[in-house]
Predict the structure.
Amino acid sequence: MDFYTLFPNLEPWVQNLAGVWPASVIKPSIWMFAAIEAVHLLTLGLLGGCVILLNFRLLGIGLTTEPISVVEKNLRLWLWVGVGGVLLTGVAIGMSNAEKLYTSPAFFVKMVSLAAGLIFSFGVTNAIAKSEGSISTGTKIAAVIAFVLWLASIGVFGAASGANPGTVHLVCAGYAILFAFGSKLPKIIGAAALASLVLVGWILTYGVWNVWDNYETVTQINIWFVRAAAVILVGLLGYDIFTSRSTETSPVVKLVALFSILSWVTIAAAGRWIGLS
Amino acid sequence: MFHEFFRWLQEDLGFDPEQGASWSQQFLGSFNLWSILEGTHVLTLMLFAGTIWIVDLRMLGVAFKNVPFSKINDKVLPYTAVGFAAMLITGFILFLAKPMDYYHNVWFRAKLIFLIIASINIFWFHHKVQKNQEEWDANPNPPLPVKMSAVISMTSWILIIIFGRFIAYNWFECGKPQPAFVNVFAECASTSAGVVRADAILEDGAMETAPLEAQAPSTEDAPESAPAATSEEGN
């Protein structure tokens, strides 16, 4: 799935984008694209820190000595700077690269998860934080919309040939959250499961089947191991969220916080795999 | 200085005649391993850079002003440390994919310099500035040394990220016609443009032209399996 498949009639408009300001200035320059890309990464870092710290607080970890609303209030400006910077630089480098992005499944994934991430950050988690962790019906509806968008984006990500190894980042981020947030037993099970999956995958690829030089087969093996790791992760995180000792926020709010972080990780991972796939 | 060691690491170590590639080249040519590690390295910025900047912003007195520094520091820094460990491990493994090329890369060298500056700053902050932390801990506007340390930290990490991204571009690759100081800084050997490696500059300032086989590495020799690393279109 990509934007070309969905909107083939836009092709002339997309082709024209590289000639429109600011792309018309960026594209011929040797260094400008790289410089804007670097700012894109810098602001990604800033927004990532804000998203992680706020949602960790909603999960009941990190800045727990402060009320949720205080954490949100102090991070708000920097989240805006981060998201604003990423969007502005993203439009600039995106326009300069429009034709490639038009047919890129990874870019499609990035845009759908971006919609999810923006709704989570500016329509859901900020509202929950302002009301000290309670969630209204309207916010719940926004959260469901964002969740469905994110789910759709990872569905396309997993099926996007060439870019699908990028889903590994998502699973890694999920396990990192498990290790930061989870209770002892799920963490031990998670670590053991992850280690055994990597080991078994390695033995099958390089030993038993000896197919390391066949891209299609290796990718298939990787896909199935990522799926297995993801299923185990969902079970462990689900168990932890619904049995968490931290009762300041409800399990629903904790789920929202988890999906909010993961949707931003999806945006970044898909973005990186536009270049890698 | 270490050119020969990194050349051996990149081209000779674990060389398999069947594949015609060393361990390093096999890693660079791997289907997804290099890309996943590189992606992880970049994505970990969200955890590492983002959280360290929030601590820096508190030290500057512009975020979490009414929260004591120690609370932010104690609650945020453990996550920053995990992020840093992940960056360091993935960064080190990625270095092994093209050690000789990175060794002669201007941006890589600049990045290492600022990594050292950032480390010295952490050391200075921990052993000097933090000594009287109780006096300014709750102060919304910390004293100058604290702010200075925050500025050094933020600037270093910003430059480290920028230089890190620029490593992928071959603007100042050895062998290109460019100012002599660039070749000296990157320890390039002689090139077609007539510039020389650092140790070939004679005492009277004249330059000795090194033989062709001593020519510096070119990323063009690298397998084409990691397109994003050299592509200017990488996003």
Q: What stands out?
A: The first helix of chain A runs from residue 3 to 6. Chain A has a mean pLDDT of 95. The CA atoms of residues 205 and 211 of chain A lie 5 Å apart.
